[in-house]
Amino acid sequence: MDPARVDSVEAAEIRAETELHSGLLPGADSSHPAELELPTLGKQPSLSGGSTVKSHGRRVLRPLALFKAASRTMKKAAKSTQQLVTPSSRAAGGKRQSVNPVARAAQEALRATRMHLTRKPQKKQAPAENRAVRLNAGEATDGFCGNDIKTAKYNLVTFLPIFLCEVFSRAAYLYFLLQACLSWWSTVSPFGGTGSTAALTFVVLVAGVKAIWEDSKRHKEDRRTNASTAHVLRNNGALEDIPWREVKVGQILRVNDDELFPADLLCLASALPDNVCFIKTTNLDGESNLKIRRPIDTTAVPDDSGEAQVLHTRATLQCEGPNADLHNFNGRFDPDDTAGGKEAKAIPATINEMLLRGCLLKNTGHILGLVVYTGKESRIQMNAAKTPLKVGSFDSFLNMQIGLIIILQICMVLFCGIASYIWRKNAGQLRPHLGLNAFVEGNYKNGLGYTLVLMITYWILYSYLVPISLFVTLEIVKFWQAFIFINFDKAIRDPVTGEAARARNSGLNEDLGRVEYVFSDKTGTLTSNEMQLREIGIKGIPYGTLDFKLEEHGDLAGPEGLLQFDERLYKAARGLLQEGAWAELLKSGGSAPALLSLPSSFPPLQMLEAAGLNTKELLEGQVEQHEEVGVGDAVLGHHVLDFWLCICLCHNLIVQNDPQTGQPLYQGPSPDEVALVEGARQLGFELVARGNQDLTLKFLGAEAKFQILNVMEFSSDRGRMSVIVRAPDGTIRLLVKGSDAKMLALLRPDTPKAHLEETNKNLHLFATQGLRTLLVGTRILSEEEFMTWDARYQQAAAALEQRDVAIAKAAADIESDLDLVGSTAIEDKLQEGVPAAIQSLLDAGIKVWVITGDKQETAINIAISCKLINHPDTLHICNAHSPESAHSRLRELLTAVRQRQNPTVFRSERAAAPTTAELVASAMPLPEGPSMPMPANARTAEMVIDGPTLTHVLGTPAEETLAELGAQCGAVVICRASPSQKAAIVRLMTQYELKVAEKGSRGLLRWIRRQARRQEGKMLAIGDGANDVAMIQAADVGIGIMGKEGRQAVNNSDYAIGQFRFLVRLLLVHGTLSVYRLARLIKYSFFKNIAFAFLLFFFQFYNGFSGQAMVDGISAAAYNVAFTSLPILLFSVLDRPVRHFGTLIQYPQTYNHGSSLTTEVFWKSGVLSAVIDAAIVFFVTYYAIVSGGRNSIADVYSMGKVAFIAMLGSVTLEVCLTARYWTWFFGIIVFISYWLVYPFELLFPVVEMWIKSPDPAQYGVARHIFSHAQFWLIIILTNSITFGHRFLERAIIWQYMPQDNMILKEMEISAGGLPGVSSWQTQKRLSHLGVTDESGRPQGSHIDPEAGYRANANFDHAAEYHKRGQAASKGGTSQNGQANGVPEVQLSNRGLASHESDVPFMPVV
């Protein structure tokens, strides 16, 4: 600092002290005493005369008199301690441990480097696998890879081989490839090879286009990254801008603030005078706080003078080869020997000097760095691991069903092959015109050979059982749902940052609609990670209110802010200000020991006398005396200053000036410290500036500078932070801030029990309000005590081995016998809409677990605030300190939960689901063991368990008890949990649910049940920080919150959203739509193909099992890829169960309701229905055709064409019957897809003739049958029968067994839009979730607000008309006791959802 500045500051302090003793405020003229502008409180008693004033009949001590009486001995002791440098520092004979956060970080980095140097030889040749980088005026070192990166999978040369290998590595595509190859074997193939090959080519081509489109985005991102600008320092000192791809090892780069490092650099110079730089490693490890790095210690380089000499330095960096270690680096910087006899010493290089690619430079100006690793050899690229492979539930389902279909195909092939041999041997011998006695190729004499060849024929013939178009259609639909519907959904776009949702894994879309458990982080996920000071406690008395939010009153500052925060604090501070004691008290660093040790700010007379205060002298001359003399606000004023001194001095913040407002801007690694110091500033207790060894404070207009002598850093083991400061008058004080668990053990042994009880009441009060708490304490140190301790501390700080342990021990020696000053309460605000989101998830039957590292009280009260815990009076808490107690407590809680449930629920769940109130009211014991899982409606228990208890449970037999107990609970809160415990909990519940599903089975049945369970309920984890990555990766679906703790969680997630409330729409809307659409896509795709295959199968009974196909190969291929693919594709991206998506959120009970795609439903809807329709089409066609006449269509090709077109009409009508949301575009495509077959059948034979490749099965057949009346009558008859029986089935279900979404659809039609809401709770929830505005009108819609109430009035009549006997929804009562806000709606319960299958209702345009 400038000496003139020091002199001016000291002169100002002396002048202020003189004015204070003269009765003036600092800066006031002697003839006009200064008056600090203070808000008035109305009529207040005068404080300007005498040593006491009379207030409300009590004698109140003058603050100045009290202060002088308490601090006489302090002034005497302080006269000899005015020096700025302590004798202990001189006695140490070395450099003191820095107290400036920046300098201290630089010292730590330098110390680590030197320790590294002492452990390794200074001269050691680098192994062959290591690298040597030459620092030679910025000249590049040859022989290393370039800096361009490539995340794209393909290029023009490699696309075809890589893509084809990827495609045909999948069993389904390999299956179709085999079919296409066999179809060219004319001896056995019933079709020509052209059709199947063309179909496979088309499917592979579509998949290739999709792969190219996705990879083009990677190429675009690679080009953008590689073209970013880097600044290279040339040998002439000039800076030249080059793209990142041209950066080479050995070059010197300049990186400016807010620029990413283009490669891994060795820091050579920094623009900061402290010789450090700040980096943000968010892209590397997800942490958003700044980290400090330092340039290489070039003090060993002769004549080095810093940045100006970088170009003149000649050296070689010997370092390890490229690796993925982000936390360690081993290297040696060897300067060249120079003239003049000076020997250059090797300088060790560690991770403290490395600037890794992807990190961001902040608050430094610029740095110069030597390029060490580039491109794919950089640390971030070598850590670019793929996220764990997650397969969607429908993909797994398809694999199992395809296996069963192939078994069916094998059975059909065996049957037909054996039947063909039997028919040839018996009936064939009676038909000599067939020539079966002539054994030629394909008609082998050997029975086994004949059968095997015919089996190959039938294998090809029945290959249509597996739809080849399904797989590419499935990929397209999932891609469209994810990257179009989710990514561009404005309803889940963050209104603050403008960031849209990101679907990073479209393969899991359907799992969004099947979530059973949600495991959520708290800080930054449920809360906004914006810390704000709410309340404080001083000497056991709470001050402030939760309703007063400082951030909403930015215009308040100083006394005005203090008055609004708490009038009592303002009055206490004003008293000291008006008496002139405030500035003097600030310069002394706070209260005298006698006042500091008082357990209360309002002590009785006996306590004052016991503290050594001469109250008789203070009260001399007064009229009357009382046994207990109130000291008014005087003692409180002293304690207020003590409290805020602890807050404003005990931290690691850096002070900067905000260029926009001019106010101080505080930055540091702890958001809690920023919140406390910023809150203090708004209340008038301002941290003005930080010097290298001092802090300048300005408290309510009085300014003072405190010298920082020592800083003991916070660590998780210590649980606290301490500083030792010297006040302007020379008093030395220890200030400590930490958790209550650690701080209470450091207090004076004689701390009154009443004081501790009141403090604990404050902590409990703050915790019940969901606030984060800290305690602050202080102690005055004598000069001798400090000097003795400081010598030990500096010795510990200079230790090379076990330094952290030595420092912690030295700190513990001084951190004792503290006077407890007070407590702080900080709010980590809930995100918008979190309570409404939690309620919606619970109403949807999803069990929500919150897993956090916060203390138990805070976690519980956050859970209460967000409506996760609704019965705190019956909350089950599991805290244990040993494995035995943990196991015992879990068994006890499990027994208690079982006793609250009714065993009749299990027997009657499918008959009538009881309400939650009925379940809670029952008290009969539940059956033992996990073999009988609790129904969703009965899970009303709520549990809390802490991390230490989990330590005793996980990995032991008791974890199964924990899993069973958790499964019985609707909400679980886990506190003090580590990242590994978060992931372990997810895996535990996954395995438990699978074990329950097994029901003791073994072998194949066990595997089938486990696979079925995997389809029903999914585990979802959601978090925002790097500590949530393990949990996100362990869950079936991982959701990353784009919050303030970096992008590590997002980068490892399957989906990313901006706020927790968006999870409701992601699951209830996008998840429901994905399940609805994809389930019907799969069932319909198999339906149409199995129907076609069985059409060919039935024909074998009438052609002697010869393997003859009644449909040509070209028409068969077109059936799959042209005529039937477009309608189901549009259905899968456009159809919806309800018209308005808000309806799905309004009624969350319908989420994951029923089984739309199980093995039973699949074989009923996709296989059995297909066989029935195939039988109708074939037998009606076969027996309706008249065999006689000149224009008969009874030949095999004509009949095959008729049956083919009839089947096409039947499957087209099926998709029309399945659709629930018709649009004109969908209708036109369906119409064209069907009627396209007629011109196709007429024109394609002409094309074949034109290319001179006629097909007798095609040419002239279509024109012949189209001119015959029988054809049109057969088409009408078959389509009427197939459509009629399916329509009748749907009508019966619609009339007597409606599904929930059918009822919701009818309500929408009746309401003319979004169904109305009569419950204010539901209206409030929908408003918070963005579905409606505060008046209940749909957002962005102009629907008649009265329409909803008309719908409610009409629904009772509709319910009676349709005889809907289901009386309770699956969700029972909501968390607020209402029937989910919709008591007028009667939805079918989960137990009746087994008939859900694919039964849609009539399409409505």
From TrEMBL:
Keywords: ATP-binding, Magnesium, Membrane, Metal-binding, Nucleotide-binding, Translocase, Transmembrane, Transmembrane helix. It is a multi-pass membrane protein. Residues 140-192 form the P-type ATPase N-terminal domain. It holds the Pfam family PhoLip_ATPase_C. Residues 1050-1298 form the P-type ATPase C-terminal domain. The active site is at 521 (4-aspartylphosphate intermediate). ATP binds at residues 521-523, 673, 714, 737, 772, 852-854, 976, 982, 1027-1028. This is Phospholipid-transporting ATPase. GO terms for cellular component: plasma membrane.
